[in-house]
């Protein structure tokens, strides 16, 4: 049996290759799974019956939609620690990763030794977040952020997928088609989402859930536009 099983979920092949090399060096004999989009990442976890010891998750890849993907993973596999690996390093994003259930946050600019240290710490049951200086604890944060995170965490995987569709500006019928359910089912999910989040309209949902969506760095946006 492998020493441990680690999933690398990132849509950049070069980044996946670099992370794979880091994981292989830090954990000889580990089974390394890879995915370039959110749905294949979930399928990879299912392929080993959820027996994954650690997930390295990029915030920006097809189907991810910012932190909603993190909530989906945590909701379906709460025992698997997730380390966010992102090109973003601002305190607000790191704060949200911590508040939304990540066990660690590793900037893509971090040296190999630092990434390996972070992964070992999380696999040993700890948390690992970058040292962002004295201003980290005072980073801007919505006052109701912890309460909002707790409310979002009560949503089922299906409701989170509907929420992701709403934040992407999709109509109920589009969401229904993508989820292979009836439009009436989507409407029912929307009603429950409103109740659980303490909101009263679809517009309020879009505004509130906007904090879950993280814009990719400019260089990533440019790469996707030309890729």
Automatic annotation (TrEMBL):
The record's SMART domains line, in alphabetical order, gives: HTH_LUXR, REC
- InterPro entries on file: CheY-like_superfamily, EvgA-like, NreC/VraR/RcsB-like_REC, Sig_transdc_resp-reg_C-effctor, Sig_transdc_resp-reg_receiver, Tscrpt_reg_LuxR_C
Question: Which GO MF terms does the UniProt record name?
Answer: DNA binding
Instruction: Name all Response regulatory domain ranges.
Output: 5-123
- Is Phosphoprotein set as a keyword in this record? yes
Which PROSITE patterns does this chain map to?
A: HTH_LUXR_2 (PS50043), RESPONSE_REGULATORY (PS50110)
Gene Ontology terms describing biological process: phosphorelay signal transduction system; regulation of DNA-templated transcription
**Superkingdom of the organism of origin:** Bacteria
Q: Which UniProt keywords apply?
A: DNA-binding, Phosphoprotein
Q: Which CDD domains match?
A: LuxR_C_like, REC_NarL-like
Q: Name one Pfam family in it.
A: GerE
| The HTH luxR-type domain, residue ranges | 148-213
Provide the positions where the record notes the PTM 4-aspartylphosphate. Answer: 58
| Signal peptide from the UniProt entry | none
Q: What is the name of the protein in this document?
A: DNA-binding response regulator
Q: Which organism is it from?
A: Skermanella aerolata
């Amino acid at each position: 049996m492998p020493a441990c099983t680690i999933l690398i979920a990132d849509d950049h092949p070069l980044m996946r290759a670099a992370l794979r090399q880091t994981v292989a060096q830090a954990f000889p004999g580990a089974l390394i799974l890879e995915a370039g989009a959110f749905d294949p990442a979930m399928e990879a976890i299912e392929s080993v019956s959820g027996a994954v010891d650690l997930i390295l998750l990029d915030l920006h890849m097809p189907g991810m939609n910012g932190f909603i993907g993190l909530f989906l993973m945590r909701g379906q596999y709460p025992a698997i620690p997730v380390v966010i690996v992102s090109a973003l390093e601002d305190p607000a994003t790191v704060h949200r990763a911590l508040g939304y259930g990540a066990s660690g946050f590793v900037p893509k600019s971090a040296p190999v030794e630092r990434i390996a240290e972070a992964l070992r710490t999380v696999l040993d049951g700890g948390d690992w977040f970058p040292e962002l200086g004295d201003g980290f604890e005072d980073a801007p944060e919505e006052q109701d952020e912890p309460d909002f995170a707790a409310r979002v965490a009560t949503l089922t995987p299906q409701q989170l997928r509907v929420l992701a569709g709403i934040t992407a500006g999709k109509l109920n019928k589009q969401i229904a088609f993508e989820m292979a359910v009836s439009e009436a089912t989507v409407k029912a999910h929307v009603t429950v989402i409103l109740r659980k989040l303490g909101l009263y309209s679809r517009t309020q949902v879009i505004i509130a859930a906007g904090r879950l969506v993280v814009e990719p760095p400019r260089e990533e946006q440019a790469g996707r536009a030309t890729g």
